[in-house]
Write a structure and sequence with these properties.
Blueprint: E1 2-7, E2 9-12, E3 17-24, E4 33-38, E5 45-50, E6 56-58, E7 66-71, E8 76-81, E9 90-97, E10 103-105, E11 109-114
Parallel strand pairs: 2-11
Antiparallel strand pairs: 1-3, 3-8, 4-5, 4-9, 5-6, 7-8, 9-10, 9-11
């Protein structure tokens, strides 16, 4: 599975951005699609995840501001980020899982939020 992320960029605090991630290859059995992020000087953390069945989890820090969605037919996952804060500045990574513990990471896309 290959993951191609797009979106991100630079925005002022309070603004919005969207991220998309398209999977290609053996995508028919993708289970969970998710977004992680790594802020400067911090460890990578989970942001949001959505299962094949549609169950969604968000990090507490983004709850109510971010929305994850998925198009399983197109093997894509989206992250809509609203009311962005400076602390959301990070490199965002797409992540998917398949059966038997297979996991895949995208290349990362930068999100920068300024005050």
């Amino acid at each position: 599975v290959q993951l191609q992320a797009s979106g991100g960029g630079f925005v002022q605090a309070g603004g919005s951005l969207g991220l998309s991630c398209a999977a290609s290859g053996s995508t028919y059995d993708i289970e969970t699609m998710a977004w992680f992020r790594r802020a400067p000087g911090k460890q990578r953390e989970s942001v949001a995840a959505i299962t094949r069945a549609g169950a969604i989890n968000y990090a507490q820090s983004v709850q109510g501001r971010f929305a994850i969605s998925r198009d399983s037919a197109k093997a894509t996952v989206h992250l809509r980020m609203n009311n962005l804060k400076e602390e959301d500045t990070a490199v965002y990574y797409c992540f998917v899982t398949r059966p038997w513990g297979d996991t895949y990471w995208g290349q990362g896309t930068q999100v920068t939020v300024s005050s």
